[in-house]
Amino acid sequence: MSFFSSALRSSFRLARRVVVLGGFLTALVLPLPSLAVQSPAGCNSNRMNISLVKDKTLVSPGDVITYTVTVSNVDSGSFIACDITNASIVFTYPAADGTDTGSTLTLASGASYPAGTPITTLATVPYTVAVNAGVTDVVAKVELDGDLNDAPSNHSTQIIKTLGTTVQPAATATPTPTPTPQVSLPRLPRTGSR
């Protein structure tokens, strides 16, 4: 019996070593989950803001609109902003039909906007109005996608802002009116009594 119990104990020790070694190898091979944390500690709100501003409200084809894109992430009273990380910000130009589906311009990629980020100008983007005939409105768009550090697991956040501008038809030259000739009638001498 002692032979069997000795062999059994050796088998258990070997099995335990294999399990421990297997667990150690598994830990080396398997990727660890990302270590996200609430940041800053105690934050309780998504205060990220992105703004789109234009310098003109009425344009004609060929005019230039300058758009300004600003970002901020500030507290407000008891609303404590959470950090934004891994953010991308994309500006979309107006398309020829006036919609916000034109070409795009990446303004930021992999950016961070920690709590306390004051209003900051990210970019100024000029756009020359080029629309199809009959289009009376052009719309630009700015979009932010990023990670909100609001809990032990980050959550995605997305902000989309659009801004329109009225388009008036291109000015056409008004023809100069032809002056009407002034007709002078000859004056007849006065005759007779009065």
Description:
This protein has 194 residues and is mainly beta. The protein has a domain at 48-167: ntegrin, alpha v. Chain A, domain 3 (Immunoglobulin-like), CATH 2.60.40. Helices cover 14% and strands 39% of the residues. It is built from one helix and eight strands; from the N terminus they run αββββββββ. The chain has a five-stranded mixed sheet with strand order 2-8-7-4-5, with no helix packed on it. The protein has a three-stranded antiparallel sheet with strand order 1-3-6, with no helix packed on it. Strand 7 (137-148) and strand 8 form a beta hairpin. The chain is elongated, with a radius of gyration of 37 Å.
List the SSEs and their pairings:
Elements lengths: L1 H28 L18 E7 L3 E2 L4 E10 L10 E9 L11 E10 L3 E12 L8 E12 L6 E13 L27
Parallel strand pairs: 2-8
Antiparallel strand pairs: 1-3, 3-6, 4-5, 4-7, 7-8
